[in-house]
């Protein structure tokens, strides 16, 4: 983002002024302040947008890296020299959970503040920015409810209600869809939010002020929610929502995806990126890339491999059982590490020198680290044996650097994948050829990472992973789920939801059971289904109604959409 997009920081004092005054005309005529032609809600839009996908470093660490990115199965901790085993996140930690909950629950204030400015009768009234606010609210609530389950929605932010009730996920989904419909109706055929200072333009870091792209974003989100809710217990709205969404414009190869470029100028304490935490703390806080991701890319000759991941450094690695503190499971753990190299198809040699096992791994190879490795296996997991994220993902945040890989809001690739799935399932309103839609989704997904059209076409033409013309329905749906999971790389919230909803990749959804190698955590090895509420949730007396309706406040409680 350019510095000009963040005029909001220079205008923050206006928030206090606008919220305290009852006479906005005084500001309009005060020549020592802002002229009416200089004031616009767009200066408050950017702040509202980026805090949903790039909050400050404190929640970015705890919500994204420790929890959702870990659960998504893309990234791993737990190599020798790391501060933690890969049990982190899978074992409940109140401090980390509170940070994640506090950020997401607290974000509602951001969206409400902006909405109050731009709604009818608001001090910066703008019907098109109000439509934007409704769509941002939809993006937020989809993320919020799919992280925790029941949360306040219908009474949240309502004047005079200090302790709103907790709504079930079905109610939230239906409410979001209704508000998305309202937003799309408001936008209609309009293209911009206004003229001059009222044109959101660059201050809109999602769509650049293009209202028709906002409309497609809203409709694609509607399709996502409908497909996610389809078949859940008591679902009575998903089919119609899907049919309506399929009959209206979606994100596609003409619009491209909706993404938000990371800012490399403002402080990481205002908007964080992976590079902030990667480069701030040294190797102890680094993370590796999972075997689930690397092997899926590598086994299918996926050209995104080099864009997603850096090769392992390789080298010579010695494993010896300490005679003073022998490990009864030494050989099993060494064999496990060697097995991970085999699974990656790595070029390596092993040899013995006395009681020492020596592994020599050639440099320049892609090797993913298995997820959820426990603390006892930790010392066997050598950092240079495994791949790390690409430079585009972990680029340091300095003003001299170009933008790194952007934050994903919603991709055109997903729009195509969801359409392909709808066609395969024979849903009302679904049209077109499933394979053609699937192939377009793959090309859009690869475009995000700079993969050429030729390389994408080669992949589609030659790899079974890109072919849904053969196999059973379940096998075809598995391939679509895998592509949705792959395109959500770096978007842990959505990738985690894909696994919970579809059960794929199955190796993640199955959890772990071998206590010698893996950390079973609070979940006893099961795959995490949600985050626990933060401690602040109990302050609302209505919280007592959640457990009887949803189940225990545990990570293993399955949410409505995944039942």
From TrEMBL:
Keywords from the UniProt entry: Signal
Pfam family, one: SusD-like_2
PROSITE patterns on file: PROKAR_LIPOPROTEIN
Name assigned to this protein: SusD/RagB family nutrient-binding outer membrane lipoprotein
UniProt xrefs under SUPFAM superfamilies: TPR-like
Extent of the signal sequence: 1-19
Domain of life: Bacteria
């Amino acid at each position: 983002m350019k510095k000009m997009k963040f005029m909001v920081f220079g205008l923050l004092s206006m928030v206090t002024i606008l919220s305290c005054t009852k006479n906005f005309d005084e500001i309009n005529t005060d020549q020592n302040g802002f002229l009416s032609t200089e004031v616009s809600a767009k200066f408050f839009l950017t702040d509202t947008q980026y805090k949903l996908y790039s909050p400050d470093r404190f929640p970015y660490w705890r919500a994204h890296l420790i929890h959702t990115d870990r659960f998504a199965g893309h990234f791993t901790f737990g190599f020798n020299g790391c501060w933690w085993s890969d049990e982190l996140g899978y074992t409940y930690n109140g401090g980390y959970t509170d940070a994640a909950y506090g950020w997401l629950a607290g974000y509602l204030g951001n969206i409400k503040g902006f909405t109050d400015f731009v709604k009818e009768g608001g001090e910066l009234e703008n019907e098109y920015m109000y439509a934007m606010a409704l769509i941002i609210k939809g993006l937020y609530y989809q993320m919020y409810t799919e992280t925790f389950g029941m949360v306040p929605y219908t009474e949240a932010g309502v004047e005079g209600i200090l302790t709103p009730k907790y709504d079930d996920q079905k109610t939230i989904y239906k409410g979001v869809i209704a508000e998305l419909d309202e937003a799309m109706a408001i936008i209609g055929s309009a293209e911009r939010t206004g003229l001059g200072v009222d044109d959101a333009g660059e201050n809109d870091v999602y769509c650049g002020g293009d209202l028709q792209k906002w409309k497609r974003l809203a409709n694609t989100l509607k399709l996502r929610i409908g497909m996610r809710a389809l078949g859940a217990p008591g679902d009575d709205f998903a089919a119609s929502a899907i049919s309506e969404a399929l009959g209206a414009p979606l994100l596609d190869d003409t619009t491209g995806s909706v993404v938000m470029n990371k800012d490399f100028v403002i402080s990481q304490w205002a908007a964080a990126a992976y590079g902030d935490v990667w480069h701030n703390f040294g190797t102890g806080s680094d993370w590796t890339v999972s075997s689930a991701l690397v092997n899926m890319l590598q086994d299918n000759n996926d050209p995104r491999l080099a864009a997603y991941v850096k090769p392992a450094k390789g080298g010579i690695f010695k494993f010896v059982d300490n005679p003073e503190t022998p490990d009864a499971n030494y050989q099993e753990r060494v064999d496990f590490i060697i097995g991970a190299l085999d699974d990656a198809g790595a070029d390596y040699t092993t040899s013995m020198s006395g009681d020492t096992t020596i592994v020599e791994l050639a440099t320049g190879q892609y090797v993913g680290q298995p997820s959820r490795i426990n603390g006892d296996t930790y010392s066997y997991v050598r950092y240079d044996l495994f791949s790390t994220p690409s430079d585009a993902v972990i680029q340091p945040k300095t003003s001299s650097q170009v933008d790194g890989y952007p934050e994903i809001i919603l991709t055109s690739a997903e729009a195509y994948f969801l359409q392909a799935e709808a066609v395969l399932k024979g849903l009302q309103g679904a049209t077109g050829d499933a394979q053609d839609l699937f192939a377009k989704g793959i090309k859009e997904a690869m475009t995000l990472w700079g993969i050429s059209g030729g390389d994408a076409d080669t992949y589609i033409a030659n790899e079974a992973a890109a072919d849904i013309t053969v196999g059973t329905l379940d096998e075809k749906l598995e391939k679509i789920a895998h592509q949705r999971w792959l395109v959500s790389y770096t978007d842990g919230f959505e990738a985690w939801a894909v696994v919970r909803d579809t059960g794929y990749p199955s190796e993640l959804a199955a959890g772990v059971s071998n206590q010698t190698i893996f950390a079973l955590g609070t979940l006893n090895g099961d795959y995490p289904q949600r985050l626990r509420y933060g401690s602040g949730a109990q302050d609302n007396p209505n919280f007592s109604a959640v457990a009887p309706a949803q189940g225990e406040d545990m990570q293993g409680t399955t949410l409505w959409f995944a039942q």
